[in-house]
Amino acid sequence: MIFALVGNQNCGKTTLFNQLTGSNRHVGNFPGITVDQKIGKVLGKNNLFVVDLPGIYSLSPYTSEEIVTRDYLLKHKPDAIINIADATNIERNLYLTLQLIELQIPMILALNMMDEVQANKGSIDIRQMKKSLGIPIAPISAAKKQGLAEMLEQAIGIAQNYSIPQRIDFCSGSVHRAIHAISHHIEDHAQKLGIPARFAATKLVEGDELILKSLHLTENEIDLIEHAVQEMETDLQTDREAALADMRYQFIEDICHECVVKAQESREYRRSIRFDAVLTHKIWALPAFFSIMLAVFGLTFGIIGNRLSNMLIRGIEAVNGSIDRALTAYGLNSVFHSLIIDGICKGVGAVLGFVPIIITLFFFFSILEDSGYMARVAFVMDKPLRKIGLSGRSFVPLLMGFGCTIPAVMATRTLASERDKKMTILLTPFMSCSAKLPIYALFTAAFFAGYQAFVMIGLYIAGIIVGVFSGFIMNKTVFRGAPVPFVMELPNYRFPSVKTVILLLWEKAKDFIQRAFTIILLATIVIWFLQTFDLRLNPVADSANSILAVIGRLISIIFAPLGFADWRVSTALISGFTAKEAVISTLAVLSGESITELGPTLQSFFSPLTALSFLVFTLLYTPCVAAIAMVKHEFGSIKGTAFIILYQTAIAWLAAFILYQVGRLCG
Q1: What angle do CA 509, 512, 518 make, to 5 degrees?
Q2: Cβ–Cβ under 8 Å, residues 599 and 445
Q3: Is the dihedral of CA 257, 259, 265, 269 positive or negative?
């Protein structure tokens, strides 16, 4: 059997999914975490699966999430729906419940966060609400694992017995007459399509074009439907969507009046109001955000992350030294000795040394997200983003871009319009991903010691500024139009979950280490081979005579106007197409230096100005191959993907060129 988890955004669906399946899926105090469906096997139950669907507020096809969820329910027809609702905000959540009931699929209403309702002296009459809605109801607390076993048993029972909701008619008066008249006209069409006539009629009253097209109605039937809707609008003196919404909310209001004792304002809510007085203030919000980011980078690249990284680097060098001595004592062939030490150990080791910095940064990011602060940042950023033709909703994937471009591009699926989606995909790679952190850390330590945090945040801000500028240009040219309206629930601030933070850090560390021992390992071996042999495949004493040097010199012409014409630098940038961390491993292999010696070595062919130019180019040029593949998948066009690659590389080259040339003139 398959159960579908359906509910509003931020109601606890993914938390419940994790509890039922044992999945380590990331849970955030942030609307829109789930961007597509994910299926998992229920722990301790054979052949029982749960699907976590995107959070939605209705079954109207206004957003990608609503389309994904509705299509799954209509086409895949799960054995039962587990409708999870936030019991602390029951009125809003029941709006979706009424629409799900119309689907005539066995369903249970799981009232989540009942512990918070009771803690704040509220209550819900479960028995009376069950009678009014005609579906089973289970009070639960997903976070505390309370009531989950009972809920699951009830869900299994209704699925096995195919117990569909007992009541589907919540309307009265003119709305009632319109829905029932339309249901009569379309009953045979709905039956052929395999959807309930009542649900289809309700959608036609709302003006749902997708349902209208799929029913294949005759012109006469469409005229009869429009006549019924016009009569309803005339009687009620309102439009079709408002009439249906008013009907539903009137029914919900009656249920809540009968069954719900309102909880008092919670301590979390009062605390959120106090914090938001500053953190969402029209003047202080952005300064507060930049101050928080400066503190995060200062701690990451100074007090905490950098010290931990230095400790790990010393450990890696000690291990490399031991391996080197062991291979020398064994008398291993010099070429293979070079491959293991100069290729693998130094290349991969150069990247692994930065794991603590990445973990530290994401530790702080996880706390900010899990606390609910990042949802406020999206709210605050809505107004400035609208000036470049996007809404605050685009801030979610743009923010994820600071972690990794791949999930950030995937997150654009949640955007309501194709225009917003494509424009956000174009801008997302300008947000500096975590794979570039080793490059920043190495160069800022070598050339800007004492000012690392300021240079780092400057790079991040530069990426944002270039993204804003690009967005402004695109909004006036390729992607003309207005962004869709932006609605986002601001969750209460809460203390971050230790488990959630640890899981996120483990995922990031595991992903980084896997990349180090797969893509980056392969890249370092290729670089070592090209550096070790000449065009006739003879070993070279000087890497300047190698195959890599020939390729690098050809490419270096492009980068000479940016201040770094050395073939080793050009080669490192090309290897960055496989993975951005490979830039560091390539420089380590080509210089033949350990991680601690690599910084001083870079000073021999970089000045502070050319190092800054290099950092700017690295910040802005096209993302790794895996990210490009995801862009192609979401953009749906090779031509569009090629445009993004060329556009971003051209922007990177131009920005680095201007910086270097202006710096030379001023210097």
Answers
A1: 135
A2: yes
A3: negative
- Coil vs helix vs strand at 82: strand
Question: Band of the pLDDT at 165, cuts 50, 70, 90?
Answer: very high
Compute the distance between CA of residue 52 and CA of residue 71 in angstroms, rounded to an integer: 14
Beta bridge mates, 386: none
CA distance readout (Å), 118 to 87, 254, 640: 10, 21, 53
**Cβ contact 587:568 at 8 Å:** yes
Residue 309 binned pLDDT confidence (cut-offs 50, 70, 90): confident
Tell me the two tokens of residue 140: 């639960």
Query: Does pLDDT of 98 surpass 90?
Result: yes
Examine the pLDDT at 37 and tell me if it is beyond 70: no
Q: Which residue has the tokens 């391996």?
A: 323
Under 8 Å CB-to-CB from 321, ≥6 apart: which residues?
none
Q: With the CA atoms of 414, 418, 423 and 428 taken in that order, what torsion angle do they form, in degrees rounded to the nearest 10?
A: 30
pLDDT of residue 549: 85
Burial 458-470 (b: 16+ CB within 10 A, else e): bbbebbbebbbeb
Phi-psi region of 342 (alpha: psi -120 to 50; beta: other; left: phi over 0): alpha
Would you state the torsion angle of the CA atoms of residues 265, 268, 270, 271, taken in this order, to the nearest 10 degrees? 170
Instruction: Give the three-state DSSP class for 452.
Output: helix
Name the phi and psi angles at 606, rounded to 5: -135, 140
User: Between vectors from CA 355 to CA 353 and to CA 358, what angle results, nearest 5°?
Assistant: 135
pLDDT digits (tens, 9 = 90+) for 557-567: 898 999 888 88
Q: Are 544 and 588 in contact (CB under 8 A)?
A: no
Displacement of CA 129 from its chain's centroid (Å): 36
Q: What residues contact residue 73 under an 8 Å CB cut-off, 6+ apart?
A: 4, 6, 59, 81, 100, 103, 105
What pLDDT score does 29 carry?
Answer: 46
CA angle 339, 344, 348 (to 5 degrees): 160
Q: pLDDT by residue (tens digit) across 193-228? A: 889 999 999 999 988 888 899 998 889 989 999 999
In this predicted structure, the answer to whether residue 32 has a pLDDT above a threshold of 60 is no
178, pLDDT greater than 80: yes
Does the structure show a pLDDT above 70 at 24?
A: no
